[in-house]
Design goal:
The protein has helices at about 1-25, 25-35, 185-190, 195-205, 210-215, 225-230, 260-265; strands at about 35-40, 40, 50, 55-60, 70-80, 85-90, 110-115, 120-125, 135, 140-145, 155-165, 250-260, 270, 275-280, 295-315, 320-340. By secondary structure, it is α+β, with helices and mostly antiparallel strands. It has two domains: about 40-165, Spermadhesin, CUB domain (Jelly Rolls), CATH 2.60.120; about 175-215 and about 225-340, Cystine-knot cytokines (Cystine Knot Cytokines, subunit B), CATH 2.10.90.10. A five-stranded mixed beta sheet has the order 3-5-10-7-8, with no helix packed on it. A four-stranded antiparallel beta sheet has the order 4-11-6-9, with no helix packed on it. The chain is globular and about 55 Å long. It is found in: Secreted. It comes from Pelodiscus sinensis. GO terms for molecular function: growth factor activity; platelet-derived growth factor receptor binding; protein homodimerization activity. InterPro entries: CUB_dom, Cystine-knot_cytokine, PDGF/VEGF_dom, Sperma_CUB_dom_sf.
């Protein structure tokens, strides 16, 4: 009886959560869209600048306890000397609201490289502690966002240290085993392989055959959403599309997207690194004559699941955990030209 009541309570909380988010989606969008943003981080006038001359740390409010709701904080760390780098190391106590479909939508911490606006990563949940991050120059920006619902604990704490570039040069990748390479270097190495067999042989030269057998060993469980929904995408040759679809019209087209960037999962390597998705693109020549800005936007979006090989560092153990997993990607099925500007000549 107690178990049944607990299940009912869990279901009710989940329904309440989705209903609350749906009810406030419009007001939430208006609120966040009113804040000027650049590359996912608030306008510099809202950030707190911290001059870095020695080691230190920043953390979410009330760390290691539950952080407040409806909060946006931005820090920009600036080293006193120009010829140094800033290294960020996350505390082992890390926990934010869980992602939805492996995407951090609600509460997250994000790191940006100010020199070129690159988002180095966005993290949430509590299953994995984010990896170390190193700036390209003497500055780095950190952004923390929590929405109106379901704060978690303990939040996050990031320790920062200064590095002199010539002291941090890593050994040549060719001299290091794959398990010892930084994730970014390993990601570049993985990109050069054309088959799973070649990749596994590179990662595990002594036991690659066993790993390959384990990877494809059938299980009693259904293997992910790909088989449940039957919507695994296939590669489509643009040359096979209907001839009447003109080259520059507003229509769904095949684009190659990086999974790490699309899913904001810098703690994981996927193979293949990129997949084809349909995204709206093209010119709009049929808009209203008084429209000053016509934009090609999606009018029908479908989420499809793609089966890929996932490589993640093992916590406290050398080597990589290898598994087949499904990742969700948005595909634009239908597009239309919509007037986004004013209607005055």
């Amino acid at each position: 009886m107690h178990l049944f009541a607990l299940l009912l309570l869990t279901s009710a909380l989940a329904s309440q959560r989705h209903a609350a988010r749906a009810e406030s989606s419009l007001s939430g969008k208006l609120q966040f869209s009113s804040a000027k943003e650049q590359n996912g981080v608030q306008d510099p006038q809202h950030e707190k600048i911290i001059t870095v001359s020695t080691n230190g740390s920043i953390h979410s409010p009330k760390f290691p306890h539950t952080y407040p709701r409806n909060t946006v904080l931005v820090w920009r760390l600036v080293a006193v000397e120009e010829n140094v780098w800033i290294q960020l190391t996350f505390d082992e106590r890390f926990g934010l609201e869980d992602p939805e479909d492996d995407i951090c939508k609600y509460d997250f911490v994000e790191i940006e490289e100010p020199s070129d606006g690159t988002i180095l990563g966005r993290w949430c949940g509590a299953s994995t502690v984010p990896s170390k991050q190193i700036s390209k120059g003497n500055q780095i920006r950190i952004r923390f966002v929590s929405d109106k619902y379901f704060p978690s604990e303990p939040g996050f704490c990031i320790h920062y240290t200064l590095l002199v570039p010539h002291h941090t040069e890593a050994a040549s990748p060719s001299t290091l085993p794959p398990s010892a390479l930084p994730l970014d270097l390993l990601n570049n190495a993985v990109a050069g392989f054309s088959t799973v067999e070649e990749l596994i042989r590179y990662l595990e030269p002594d036991r690659w055959q066993l790993d390959l057998e384990d990877l494809y060993r059938p299980t009693w469980q259904v293997r992910g959403k790909t088989y449940i929904h039957g919507r695994k995408s296939r590669v489509v040759d643009l040359n096979l599309l209907k001839e009447e679809v003109r080259l520059y019209s507003c229509t769904p087209r095949n684009f190659s997207v990086s999974l790490r960037e699309e899913l904001k999962r810098t703690d994981t390597i996927f193979w293949p690194l990129c997949l084809l998705v349909k995204r709206c693109s093209g010119n709009c020549a049929c808009c209203h004559h008084a429209c000053s800005e016509c934009q090609c936007i999606p009018t029908k979006v479908t989420k499809k699941y793609h089966e890929v090989l996932q490589l993640k560092p093992r916590s406290g153990v050398k080597g990589l955990h290898k598994s087949l997993t499904d990742v969700p990607l948005e595909h634009h099925e239908e597009c239309d030209c919509v007037c986004k500007g004013n209607t005055e000549g």
